[in-house]
Amino acid sequence: MIALDLPEPLLWLLRWLLLLGPMAAALWLGSQMRDDRRKLVGGLFSLLYGLGLIFATHQLAIAMGWWRYGGDVLMFMGLPADIWIGGALLFGPVLYYAFPHIGPFWLTLPIVIGLHGMLFTSLKPLVLAGQHWFAGVLLVFLVAHIPAIYLARWTARDEKLALRATLLAIGYGFLAFGVLPSLIMQSLSGSWDLAARPAWLLAFCTLPFSICMLMGLSAVQSFVVHGEGTPIPLDPTKRLVRTGIFAYVTNPMQLSTAAAWIVMGIALANPWIASAAIMAWIFVQGMVRWHHRNDLLVRFPEGWPTYRANVPEWLPRWKPWIHAPARLSYDPMAGGQARLVRWLEKRNPTGLEIHAEPGCLCISYFSPDEGMAFTGIAAIAKALNHVNLAFALGGAAMLLIILPARHVCQAAGAVKVPEAIDG
Fold it and tell me: Core-most of 77, 187, 235, 333, by most CB within 10 Å?
């Protein structure tokens, strides 16, 4: 470690260079690849992810006493806004655009060891290092910076769809439910002091907030598994998604976000956060509908109009709209399968054809709209989607656990599970 006594004016100049330098580099490098749309989109995604996760990890570092920042200009909850934005630009679009063929780990390692490891404690009064500061630096790089560069790389190469959709969901979650409420509270009023709120109120808000998160995450999973794309129109799906939670509402992510803001506003006693739900409504009325007309209608001229005419935007249906009936196959001689099917039939599932197939090893589900089959517990979860909205959310919760677990097991070669089979 190098101990330097740097002049204070030089440190404040460095702070501004940490914003203006990455901003200029991002604009220049982006202009050099303006014909490569996927690289530009990847850079944008990495920036958005970085904004959410840099904010979150730095708030943790400040709370843990790993470091704090000096000064009172352009501060956002103890974090200099210029360092926040500049860091998201540098450890995202800038480094990826400049070194697209170098692995993110090796790309950031010299910065961790060289700049942070050697000079971090010499940046007073810009940064005041505390105990265990290097562990905090490693956390920021592992959680925020390195994944951001991977997200840019995978998006540009159109690979690792499940992983990049997961990173997009994480980044969006921290932006929507961390950064935005914090901006509202710093600008208007309020705080994150949950300890001051009644315990019964927080417990009461936990369930609806969890349902909102479940709905949004299920929509992301459906886009990946059935649409072969991400929730963001810049990296769109290849297939029209109209199953799962989309059989009940056309904009589940916007609905879940708006409802979650209302719940957060109630939990934090902050009407300004609750009123952010109006933003989601305006977004749907404007941007989303424009996207529907100019993208989905163009790419899916036959399927989209019929789907849109039957499924509402905001108020979910209680029973699903099923475009093409799905098939559930089971062995009537298997007691467990037979009991499950009888239970399911009593609930009058919509658009589900149940077929007895003696000798069937396990229960299976196939939907022509999805083009793939599901077996075992995953098949049961898919069948629940045909009952009503409450059961569909239960099935969605099951799939959020089952499908990633099977994907990881298959990738690791631990087990071979016929989860998705070409129809």
Answer: 235
**139, 218: one domain:** no
- The predicted pLDDT at position 73 comes to 78
Q: Does the residue 305 lie in any domain?
A: yes
Is residue 213 scored above 70 in pLDDT?
yes
Going by pLDDT thresholds of 50, 70 and 90, the confidence category of residue 117 is low
Question: What is the number of structural domains in the chain?
Answer: 3
Say if residue 417's pLDDT is above 70: no
Tens of pLDDT, residues 235-282: 888 999 999 999 999 999 999 999 999 999 999 999 999 999 988 888
Whether residue 234 sits in one domain with residue 102: no
Q: Cα(42)–Cα(302) distance, rounded to whole angstroms?
A: 30
Spatial distance between the Cα atoms of 299 and 320, rounded to a whole number of angstroms: 24
* Pairwise CA distance, residues 195 & 339, whole Å: 47
Q: Report which DSSP code applies to 355.
A: E
In angstroms, rounded to a whole number, what is the distance separating the alpha carbons of residues 363 and 182?
47
Tell me the H-state helices in 238-360.
252-267, 271-274, 277-283, 289-291, 297-299, 303-310, 335-345
For residue 70, give its domain range. 1-159
Task: Give CA–CA dist 217/100, Å, rounded.
Answer: 30
Domain check: are 72 and 195 in the same one?
A: no
Same-domain check for residues 155 and 291: no
Give the Cα separation of 351 and 386 in Å (integer): 7
Pairing of strands 326-330, 352-356: parallel
CB 221 within 8 A of CB 385: no
Mark whether 147 and 289 lie in a shared domain.
no
Residue 170 forms part of a structural domain: no
**Token couple for 203:** 């417990």
DSSP class per residue in 79-128: EEHHHHHHHHHIIIIIHHHH-TTS-HHHHHHHIIIIIIHHHGGG-TTTEE
d(CA 396, CA 385): 8
